[in-house]
Amino acid sequence: MRYGRVLNFVALLALLIAAGYFVGRHFQNARDARRALPRATSENVAASAAKTTGAPAESPASVLARIFDRLRSGNLQPGELAALRRMLLAADPHEAMTAMLSFLSTGQDARTGETFGIQKGGGLAGAPTFRVMLLDLLGRIARDSGSDEALKYSRALLARQTSADEWAIALRNVAWSAPEDRTYLATKMREMLAYQPWRQQPGAGFLEAFDVIVFTRDVTFSADLAAMANSEDDSLKRAAATAMDRLSEMAPLDVMNYLNGHPAEFSALPFLRADYFSKADLSQVQQRQAVETYLARADVTAAEKDKLLSVLASPGSFVGDTLLTDPAPADEPPQRSSGLRAAVGDWLKGNRFPSLTGPLVQLQRRLEE
Amino acid sequence: MKTISLFTSALIAFLIPMAVAEVAVVAKPAPLGADAVKRPPFSMAGQVIFRSGQSFYQGSGTVVYTRSVLTAAHNVWDPVNGWSTGIQFNRARSGTTSASSRFASRLFVFGTYRTSAAHYGQDSIRTFASDLGGLRFNVAPASGAYAGWRSDSSVLASGAQVLCLGYGAEFHSGDEMLAVRAPAAFTPVFGAFMESSALTFEGGMSGGPVLTEVAPDDYRVVGVIVAGSDTPPAAGIRALDAAGAAFIAGYLRY
């Protein structure tokens, strides 16, 4: 009898476990289904939204106001923002810009649920707020139509710290409309980097704005980038190291001369500093001289110089969509590799850097492969 | 009494296979063997040895064009030591033998200031969403042959079988190609980063291919191994979405 009770208990326990398992599986499936839901439904809603917002009788201003109201009240359907973007980009540029400027002047805003993302050409694939979305569209429409509306509005916006995302797009708009005004862009970029609330919690727009530094080709940013590359914040550290790498690619001679003239910069990150000299085109006399100056420096360790010679055998580039600058070309100019081969040959032949003979021989061997 | 015993036995008989099946769901990487690595698609994968700073590390990669290998970005660059150097691709390595051994001549990281790693930190799950790296070679690593690839994240979420390859050095020697098949769907986590708890990866498999069989014995690369955890079991991959495909087509098309 007692044995029977134990069996009953075991059976019940097992039944409970089994029931729990199946209930768990059921909810797991339900969770998966919920995850998949937005993707499954967005296309239908987008099609429906396109029909609604594409109504020819409605002006850009009224569509914009209506979509904003729906966004703010939480009734916006997936796909409606994309439809709004398409509508504004396809509308008469003057009418679309007037509507957007009028809305932007109200200061109203709402979160879109999108993340800050950049597409090919520097336009936004995703904007976290309604205002950032409009600033992006304003800049794109102004660029395509040759208008200076985006430039005027963006300059006015950059007079006060609104948000880092807005500043990133405003700086891009200014660069698109007035690319020659690099001093203004550099000044505003410095203000952005110095503004502690943004710097202490760097978001997507703040980090993407580092492309303004690369765009200006202003090597005096090297000191700021070195400080940030040494910071505690991982995202700042990485963005600064990447921006410096891209700046070195865009303006190799200026960066090398700056680093040779300011030996303390990036001295705490010697292997990164070596990378910045690897962008040199040694077929160019001045660039070759800058590399030779670096290799002859007494304050640079043998390990760092070895790193440069190693990375020259297989240089690296970051590629992706940025706000302003073009990604590195897929192909390197042939004179770059012939210049490197010639320089390495000369250095070995003339015993120019005796302590680096081993790494130089290895580099020469790699280049012959 | 007899009824209860029979009922209990039946219940146990029902539950044990289910429990066994549940355990078997987590697939682990296992060595393929020297003969298997000589055949496609395995023969297009290889071991990646590289130097970062003063240390040497290991990863994996796949030949995706005549002179190009697809791998994980963190095999190629890191924020302290910069670009990796002396990157050697040992195709179809098994023990001390490789089908070919080549040094990379050009490196690419797909990402800029706000690579996911920059924004979320190296250990964050989101770090790996943009984690693609590319290697180019002066000499073709597979005499002109390469693995096919396609941009189709839906395959990874469809529940179809995928085959993941790499050179695990955590529990294995690092010199043998490991393979693991995923019996369950990957779940989108963030961007192109997807995860499955139905299988695990081993350190060193990073950069290895995630393959899908489009026809009998005809495989395509649909993703790259980028993250893994043994406890709890989790396997992270970077799916080849449209942006990833554009990266390969633009920079690794040689």
Describe this protein's structure.
The complex is a heterodimer of chains A (369) and B (254). By secondary structure, chain A is mostly helical. Helices cover 69% and strands 2% of the residues of chain A. Chain A starts with a helix and ends with a helix. Chain B is 17% helix and 37% strand. Chain B has helices at 2-24, 116-120, 153-157, 242-251, and strands at residues 30-31, 45-52, 55-65, 68-71, 77-78, 82-83, 85-91, 100-103, 106-110, 132-136, 148-149, 162-166, 178-182, 187-190, 193-196, 209-215, 218-229, 234-239. In chain B, the strands form 3 sheets. In chain B, strands 1, 11, 12, 13, 14, 15, 16, 17 and 18 form a 9-stranded mixed sheet that branches. At the A-B interface, α1, α10, α13, α15 and α17 of A face α1, β6, β7, β9 and α2 of B.
Q: Approximately how much beta-strand content do the residues of chain A carry? A: under 5%
Uncertain ranges of chain B = 16-24
Largest interface: A-B, 55 and 53 residues
Radius of gyration of chain A: 28 Å
Give the tally of β-strands of chain A.
3
Largest beta sheet of chain A: what is the strand line-up? 1-2
Q: Describe the biggest sheet of chain B?
A: 9 strands, mixed
Secondary-structure content class of chain A: mainly alpha
Short synopsis of the structure:
The complex is a heterodimer of chains A (369) and B (254). In chain A, 69% of the residues lie in helices and 2% in strands.
What's the topology here?
The complex is a heterodimer of chains A (369) and B (254).
Chain A: H1 2-53, H2 60-72, H3 80-90, H4 93-106, E1 117-118, E2 124-126, H5 130-145, H6 149-157, H7 164-177, H8 182-194, H9 196-200, H10 204-208, H11 210-216, H12 222-229, H13 234-250, H14 252-261, H15 270-277, H16 285-296, H17 302-313, E3 316-319, H18 334-349, H19 357-368
Antiparallel strand pairs in A: 1-2
Helix pairs in contact in A: 1-3, 2-3, 2-4, 4-5, 5-6, 5-7, 6-7, 7-8, 8-11, 11-13, 12-13, 13-14, 13-15, 14-16, 15-17, 17-19, 18-19
Chain B: H1 2-24, E1 30-31, E2 45-52, E3 55-65, E4 68-71, E5 77-78, E6 82-83, E7 85-91, E8 100-103, E9 106-110, H2 116-120, E10 132-136, E11 148-149, H3 153-157, E12 162-166, E13 178-182, E14 187-190, E15 193-196, E16 209-215, E17 218-229, E18 234-239, H4 242-251
Parallel strand pairs in B: 11-17
Antiparallel strand pairs in B: 1-13, 2-3, 2-7, 3-4, 4-10, 5-6, 7-8, 9-10, 12-13, 12-16, 14-15, 15-18, 16-17, 17-18
